Amino acid sequence: MRYLTAGESHGPQLTTIIEGLPSLLPITAEKINHDLKRRQGGHGRGRRMQIETDTVEIAGGVRHGQTLGSPVALVVTNDDWKHWTKIMGAEPLAEDVNPDDVKRQISRPRPGHADLVGGMKYGHRDLRNILERSSARETTVRVAVGAVAKALLNELGISIVSHVTEIVGIKADTSLVEGKSVDEIRAIVEADPCYCVDPVASAQMVEAIDEAKKAGDSIGGIVEVIVEGMPAGVGSYVHYDRKLDAKLAAAMLSINAFKGVEFGIGFEMARRKGSEVHDEIIWSEEEGYRRATNRLGGLEGGMSTGMPIVVRGVMKPIPTLYKPLQSVDIETKEPFKASVERSDSCAVPAASVVAEHVIAWEIANAIMDQFHGDQLPQLKAQIDEHRRYTKEF
After folding, report:
1. pTM of the model
2. Which residues are annotated as a binding site for FMN?
């Protein structure tokens, strides 16, 4: 499968076309909109979320609630576009309009953002041409894509959930997820303002976010994604570019402001002996092969083990600050405070939703790479047979 997205932060719409989905997959705008709403939530979000109410239009590839096997087109309209039609319009400027007079041109790049380097790369003196596309607003439509992927995974008995484990050094008690199903974790997370399973830590996170907002600053954190029901042996050890953990890591790091990724106990492995890291293999007639622990996060040799996949990503503080850092005006070369754009003080809860959906896409894509399935019933039958085979191996 593959997809492309198009659109700018303040453009008329965000668009994606998904290719390679099997036919007869149930898809509704209602389910996608539920996840789009989650992306807009979480404590610490800015005024943009009060302006936009993201909803998706299914513009192709679905008829009467089921995919056709042809490309699926999704559109998310920007409600704020009406205020930006002259600034972001696609038509050339009139001959009597001085381009320098167009409102909201940006010549002062923000530290930590794509502004300056993107301007260098594409030759734009107005850095708005960079920030409009490099904005995390693009993740809106990626969440829509991931929601479609989750619909496919759900049909195959694979479920996925995300939650926030840390914000600005405040750590949640992640043992609270142990023994809980994905559905149970989701019920807790979706009722929490920080999308956190630990109510005590969540209350402290809310305070920290509010303090950062008052100070005109921003804060980051860590999110975790858990995938249950993944068949064993998906991915490959044969070639570097077919390793499932490598693909998941790339997906996580493709999210705006994400700078690190780990699986299972992650970097803690560097502090332990091998006997305290690797998961012993056990077998039972009822369940087949399992691991006694899951320190490796459900992945060995670039392949799924059948245990829950556990992947975490670290998000740096958002670089758009209401108390901006020093920068340089690219026109005058004089030092100035960086430009201020409407932003969030903390987007870690929202980013956990984005992480959930980009991981869902990679999991679904890996499934489609390994199993043939032009039609959903064919795909289901193949995976059921594969599960029987690995259990009895």
Report:
1. 0.94
2. 133-135, 256-257, 301, 316-320, 342
